[in-house]
């Protein structure tokens, strides 16, 4: 992050962020927040500071998402393959070369 001065009253904020760190949705949120904060500062207003959730809360949330997705995926695939034969060549009815 760099703030470049073009003149005494003109500045440019330069953000260089690798795509592995931020995606298209997240960059929109970041730019909206920056815009809101800049507008507040330049108009003399104070924005309330919202406390970020704890890392522990984030981990709990991620665990919940994973467990929910896993259950849904397990149900989907269990229903999808119900009645299929098992074995290494059950789905392919082709001759097998044997050495």
TrEMBL record:
Q: Which Gene3D superfamilies match?
A: Chloramphenicol acetyltransferase-like domain
What are the Condensation domain coordinates in residue numbering?
2-83
Task: Give the GO biological process terms.
Answer: amino acid activation for nonribosomal peptide biosynthetic process; secondary metabolite biosynthetic process
Per the record, what is one GO cellular component? cytoplasm
Q: Please name the GO terms that the record assigns under molecular function.
A: catalytic activity; phosphopantetheine binding
Q: What is this protein called?
A: Condensation domain-containing protein
What is the species of this protein? Spumella elongata
């Amino acid at each position: 992050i760099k703030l470049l001065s073009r003149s005494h009253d003109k500045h440019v904020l330069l953000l260089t962020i690798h795509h592995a760190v931020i995606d298209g949705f997240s960059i929109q949120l970041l730019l909206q927040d920056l815009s809101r904060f800049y507008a507040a500062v330049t108009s003399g207003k104070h924005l309330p500071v919202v406390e970020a959730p704890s890392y522990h809360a984030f981990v709990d949330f991620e665990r919940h998402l994973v467990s929910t997705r896993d259950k849904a995926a397990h149900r989907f695939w269990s229903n999808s393959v119900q009645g299929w034969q098992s074995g290494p060549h059950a789905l392919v009815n082709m001759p097998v070369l044997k050495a």
